[in-house]
Design a protein that fits this description.
Chains: A alpha/beta, B mainly alpha, C alpha/beta
Number of strands of chain C: 12
Oligomer: heterotrimer
Shape of chain A: globular
Radius of gyration of chain C: 21 Å
Strand order of the largest sheet of chain C: 6-7-8-3-9-10-12-11
Largest sheet of chain C: 8 strands, mixed
Low-confidence stretches of chain A: 22-26
Shape of chain C: globular
Strand order of the largest sheet of chain A: 6-7-8-3-9-10-12-11
Number of helices of chain A: 11
Strand content of chain A: 15-25%
Largest sheet of chain A: 8 strands, mixed
Radius of gyration of chain A: 21 Å
Distance between the termini of chain A: 50 Å
Number of helices of chain C: 12
Order of helices and strands of chain A: EEEHEEHEHHHEHEHEEHHHHEE
Mean pLDDT of chain C: 87
């Protein structure tokens, strides 16, 4: 049933939105939310997609699960091409891939009890009878650290961290193989974040899960993911394993991102030497050339960067960078 | 902006079409034979049938409808066979009275609703808030004709402070020279202050009665919106600049709470027109509403139909204006955010 | 740390034993339970805590903006040597925006959507500088916008908030806060809602402006990294109290309170790659309406969990000093830990 090779393969994924302009007025412009993205996730791996707002990471997640329809490209799950499958067949695949959302309050129906929320996927996919479902739900709740006695309560009676656990329980009850985590800890308190990350680790081991981890915090991604890709305006800038990103980031954006994260360490020398990017992300992006070029500390004034789009090229084992001058910008 | 207006216009036309069909069909299929009513119970079958043919009541419905619409658009709104005048003439004569009544009712409703909503929201949870909310419940629940009658009993019959249901002016008084058809405005223009005073006195009870429901509706809506907006961070920020609590409420909360309330205002105008039908009957106010009530009782198709259609037009136009107005006032619609 | 009845010399803001609570029916939530600290001119002080620790309530209480069902239950707030804690709303109107101002956390909803950016800046200028004409106030507003690095300020001053990005709106908030040269600015999570790169920009900007004007800053945040980059001193807040007060230089290398230490250990850092599990603090923050009689951190404390003295008695703030390091912590075992 399971094929060898990566569990998930994304090839040349594209998603464009048409924005602006009324029917009769000015022309509609195209927003390239995801602009030719390719990556693979091996079984049991944790792959991170890192980027700031507007980079398209959430769109990628939704395209992979076909919650939004991609404009073009391929999404292969366990060897089967997902884009283009009819609804019925897709439904069977949905059991094997689930998503956990960032908004703990909004993604749980506030009118349903926690038990009902966690049970719902079982009912939708017609798994077991009521008694079997009850056992499943209790087991799952225990696994995520929520006492089954509390299952009759409603989501708003729980803290943010607990709600995230409930969301996890709901996503895992069908024992999926791939779990897409869309900013699962961003809305949580700092002391709770570590708890949830540890829980995710434990669950990955005991349930043999593969994670696609969407996050804006590069530091968290470095800690948690095996491999990660840095996104900017819908394109991959750099992709490598965590050690490499930590030790030897080559893309100027990755370097800037790392430099921008404030360090909880009072070394005064550090204060003076951060790379501060100018300007802000322009969602429409340039037509040609490197999307990062307008803000790039080394590419701002370079014609090559403005006119030629750098391809994603290998620069080491498992390490690819989309830059004409990788490694030129180093951390101060 | 342009697309907004066009979209709304299209929707309006569709709505009007639907309303006209509905009005037409409903009147035609209700029991009762206007020809017989007109001729009386002693007329023969043949005479009745003949009149029916003359009035075009024997033609298929669709044909009747098309003819009617064609006539309507040309200004021929039918002939009221109970009064012997064209409907257009009658309505034209009566409408100003309804407009005047509606106008004052709206002003009263609006002014009091805004004022009381501000107080209620500002002093949320206090006894004054409770009292104001109770008042709004009263306004929503009380049938206007009942309230009108009670008001007449108390203020006219009992205390004699206000005039009774004798129309727009004292019977002995002549109306001012006709400029707009609104007695108060015309009296002011002509400098007839005694007439102005009399007209205003006659307006008090009917306007309050008619405005009670819109007032209650507006009050509740605005109060709720004010409470929502006052929880927004920018209110706290305004206060951190040194603005007083009341100042922040007035200058920041009210404008923001007003936008969603404005959309409901269009509905209110419709309510006013509908309410006028009953209120005019109670106060014997010689407006279009009274005309319609009589028309209904006499099964005078043309009058009723024209009124329904006219109401639909007023309603749709009012909503159109409100929609456009909201679009113009809200800077988020007026100047959409540029990307990049 | 400081005796409650002496005016801290040179302090712009002196908060003494401030207490604030929320009443809902019979339940009383004690959000701020006896907080004392002072900020001197030009100093940048951090108040660090997680959500629910009471830090935002503290900010509102200091500014007199705590509305019912919240109220200030005790303590004093001294601003520039005068007691402002009992001021009427009217009198506060002269102080807020002029001597003390606020930078709010959510740039998306901190500006009035139906008023232009320019109007929102000029209104605070004209409120506190009466007699300044419209034209001059507008020029001043354009200057301020340029100072906070909003591009094409003269043109964009008439735009509306929805036409500005989050980062730019936060700059506008900074402009508004600094418009009348206040003595102290309270910044409540000013960069939390921003991207990391935008956060770096805004913090650098704030740093520069504050240094130029010699403004004191009380920065409220949950991000310890931001504290390290920006502040001189830090107060760690937990369940309505300050549990540790230290210089920034010391708190990261030698945290005095177990909560601070556990918090520092549980965050992934950009300069160190952690392997395996993250040390995490078990449990979650206490319900402020039902606080235990002893130390509020005890149920989660690696040091004090189950210990009698921690369960029974609430620790007092003890100052420790050795060598150049002084700090204070509310812990029964602070003396042991500081060696």
């Amino acid at each position: 049933m399971t094929s060898p090779g990566p569990l998930l393969r994304v090839e040349a994924l594209r998603k464009t939105f048409s924005v602006g302009g009324a029917v009769m007025a000015r022309a509609r412009t195209e927003l390239r939310a995801v602009d030719g993205l390719s990556f693979e996730i091996a079984r049991g791996e944790t792959f991170g997609l890192v980027g700031e707002s507007g980079c398209g990471k959430s769109t990628v997640a939704r395209c992979v699960l076909r919650l939004i329809e991609a404009t073009s490209g391929h999404v292969t799950f366990d060897g089967i091409e997902l884009l283009g499958l009819d609804a019925r067949t897709m439904r069977r695949f949905r059991r094997r891939m689930q998503m956990v959302f960032q908004d703990t309050a909004g993604s749980l129906d506030s009118r349903m009890s926690v038990r009902a929320i966690v049970e719902e996927p079982l009912i939708i996919h017609r798994v077991g009878n009521a008694a079997a479902r009850r056992v499943s739900v209790d087991e799952m709740l225990n696994l995520v650290g929520i006492h089954p006695d509390l299952a009759s309560r409603k989501p708003h009676q729980f803290s943010g961290g607990q709600r995230q656990r409930i969301g996890l329980a709901r996503a895992l009850i069908l024992r999926p193989e791939l779990v897409v985590l869309d900013e699962p800890i961003s809305a949580l308190d700092v002391s709770v974040q570590a708890q949830v990350l540890n829980l995710l680790r434990d669950l990955q081991e005991s349930l043999q899960l593969t994670y696609l981890f969407i996050v804006h915090d590069l530091t968290v991604a470095e800690y948690f993911c095996d491999r990660l890709g840095v996104l900017y305006l819908g394109r991959l800038m750099e992709i490598a394993d965590r050690m490499t990103i930590f030790r030897k980031p080559l893309h100027p954006y990755t370097v800037s991102l790392l430099s921008a994260v404030p360090v909880p360490d009072a070394d005064p020398a550090r204060k003076r030497s951060r790379i501060i990017l100018s300007g802000e992300v322009s969602p429409l992006g340039p037509e040609s050339g490197c999307p990062f070029q307008p803000r790039c500390p080394i590419g701002k004034d370079r014609d090559m960067c403005a006119n030629q789009t750098p391809p994603l090229e290998a620069r080491g084992p498992g390490h690819a960078v989309a830059c004409h001058f990788p490694g030129e910008l180093t951390a101060p | 902006m342009f697309s907004l207006v066009l979209g709304r216009l299209t929707a309006s036309v569709v709505a009007l079409f639907g309303a006209s069909v509905l009005a037409f069909v409903v009147l035609r299929v209700t029991p009762g034979d206007p020809a017989r009513l007109f001729l009386g119970p002693f007329a023969t079958e043949e005479t009745v049938a003949e009149l029916r043919r003359k009035l075009g009541l024997e033609m298929p419905l669709v044909e009747q409808y098309v003819n009617y619409i064609a006539d309507f658009l040309q200004g021929d709104w039918g002939f009221s066979y109970t009064t012997g005048e064209t409907v257009a003439v009658q309505l034209a004569r009566r409408f100003p009275a309804t407009i005047e009544l509606g106008l004052y009712a709206f002003i009263l409703a609006f002014v009091f609703a805004v004022g009381l909503a501000l107080v209620a929201a500002y002093r949320r949870g206090s006894p004054s808030d409770g009292a104001i909310r109770a008042l709004s419940f009263f306004g929503l629940g009380v049938p206007p004709f009942w309230f009108g009658l009670i008001a007449l009993v108390v203020f006219f019959e009992q205390f004699g402070w206000l005039p009774g249901p004798d129309g727009r002016l004292d019977l002995a008084r002549d109306p001012p020279p006709d400029v707009t058809g609104l007695f108060t405005v015309d009296a002011l223009i002509a400098g007839q202050f005694a007439t102005l005073g009399d007209a205003l006195l006659h307006l008090v009870l009917p306007a309050i009665t008619l405005g009670l429901l819109p007032f209650a509706f507006l009050l509740r809506l605005l109060r709720a919106n004010l409470l929502d907006v006052s929880r927004e961070p920018f209110i706290t920020v305004a206060r951190s600049k040194g603005m007083s609590r009341w100042g922040a409420f007035l200058k920041h909360a009210l404008p923001n709470a007003f936008l969603p309330t404005l959309t409901a205002a269009g509905l209110l105008l419709g309510q006013l027109l509908a309410g006028s039908v009953l209120v005019e009957k109670v106060f014997n106010w010689p407006g279009a509403g009274l005309l319609v009530t009589d028309g209904i009782l006499r099964q005078d198709f043309s009058v009723v139909q024209a009124f329904i259609l006219l109401s639909a037009v007023v309603y749709v136009v009012a909503n159109l204006i409100v929609d456009i107005l909201t679009g113009v006032i809200d800077p988020r619609v007026r100047q959409p955010a540029r990307l990049g | 740390m400081k005796a409650a009845d002496s005016n801290v010399s040179g302090a712009v803001l002196d908060v003494r034993n401030l207490r604030a609570e929320f009443r809902s029916g019979l339940a009383v939530t004690k959000a701020v339970r006896g907080v004392s600290f002072a900020v001197r001119r030009g100093e940048k002080v951090a108040i660090v805590g997680e959500s629910g620790c009471g830090k935002s309530t503290l900010a509102l209480a200091i500014l007199g903006l705590l509305d019912p069902p919240g109220r200030v239950a005790g303590g004093e707030v001294w601003l520039n040597g005068s007691d402002v804690s009992r001021l009427s709303d009217r009198a506060w109107g002269r102080v807020r925006g002029d001597e003390i101002s606020l930078i709010f956390q959510d740039p998306m909803s901190a500006l009035d959507p139906v008023k232009s950016i320019g109007a929102q800046i000029t209104d605070t200028i004209r409120r506190h500088q009466p007699g300044i004409g419209r034209a001059r106030a507008r020029r001043r507003a354009v200057e301020l916008l340029t100072e906070v690095e909003v591009p094409a300020a003269a043109r964009r001053i008439d735009d509306y908030p929805h036409q500005y990005s989050g980062g730019m709106r936060q700059r506008v908030m900074i402009a508004i806060a600094l418009a009348n040269d206040p003595d102290i600015v309270i910044a409540d999570e000013p960069t939390t809602a921003l991207d990391v790169t935008t956060q770096a920009q805004v913090l650098a900007l704030l740093d520069r402006l504050v240094a130029e004007r010699d403004v004191a800053v009380a920065l409220i945040t949950h991000n310890l990294g931001v504290v390290a980059e920006f502040c001189d001193r830090v107060h760690v807040m937990y369940a309505g109290c300050f549990v540790e007060q230290s210089a920034v230089g010391d708190v990261f290398s030698h945290p005095l309170h177990p909560y601070t230490e556990a918090l520092l250990a549980s965050i992934p850092r950009p300069d160190r790659l952690v392997e395996g599990r993250l040390p995490s603090i078990p449990g979650f923050p206490p319900d402020l309406a039902r606080l235990p009689p002893g130390c509020s951190f005890e149920p989660r404390c690696p040091l004090g969990y189950g210990r009698e003295v921690c369960i029974e008695r609430e620790p007092r703030t003890e100052t420790v000093g050795y060598g150049a390091r002084t700090g204070a912590a509310a812990c029964h075992f602070v003396a042991e830990r500081s060696t």
